[in-house]
Amino acid sequence: MTTIQLDTEIHTSIEKAFNLSLDIDFHKKSAAQTNEEAIAGVTSGIIKLNETVTWRGKHLGIVLTHKSIISALEHPYHFIDEMVQGQFKSFKHRHYFEEKNGVVHMKDIITYTTPYGILGKLLDVLFIKNHMTQFITHRNLALKNELEA
């Protein structure tokens, strides 16, 4: 299992950071580099607890689909999106929000397991972990820029 942890500080309210993180339309905008489209489930607006979205986008040169569910949500402090169907054996993204003195500390913890045994582990070390880290970092910077503008 691979774990990626990212920490981002945003000068905004916890409500705004939390809500924008659940906004399908904003995700499409922030993931423009992968041409991500919401093709099934919730395809626009704010996704809620127990709702699903299926994404299609180009990652590492391959068009992939990824269906996830919001499996936990404690507004405005925490939510989890988990893969229901996709390329990983398992994939869970935990989002945590804490506000202190007008600054939101946003923590992402992504855990996943690649398929294909040793080959999957090698691909993870060579490409996947770095790609996932860059993808989420880019998304968090887009959130920060939008909320601090």
In short:
This protein has 149 residues and is of the alpha+beta class.
Could you outline the blueprint of secondary structure elements for this entry?
Layout: E1 2-10, H1 14-21, H2 24-30, E2 37-41, E3 52-59, E4 62-74, E5 78-85, E6 90-100, E7 103-113, H3 117-148
Antiparallel strand pairs: 1-7, 2-3, 3-4, 4-5, 5-6, 6-7
Provide an overview of this structure.
This protein has helices at residues 14-21, 24-30, 117-148; strands at residues 2-10, 37-41, 52-59, 62-74, 78-85, 90-100, 103-113. A seven-stranded antiparallel sheet has the order 1-7-6-5-4-3-2, covered by helices on one side. The chain contains three helices and seven strands; from the N terminus they run βααββββββα. The longest helix has 32 residues, at 117-148. With 149 residues, it is an alpha+beta fold. The chain is globular. A hairpin with a 2-residue loop joins strand 6 (90-100) and strand 7.
Strand content: 35-45%
Structural class: alpha+beta
Strand order of the largest sheet: 1-7-6-5-4-3-2
Characterize the main sheet: 7 strands, antiparallel
Query: Which value, in Å, is the CA radius of gyration?
Result: 15 Å
Along the chain, the helix and strand elements come as EHHEEEEEEH
Helicity range of the residues? 25-40%
Low-pLDDT stretches: none
Shape estimate = globular
Features:
149 residues, seven-stranded antiparallel sheet
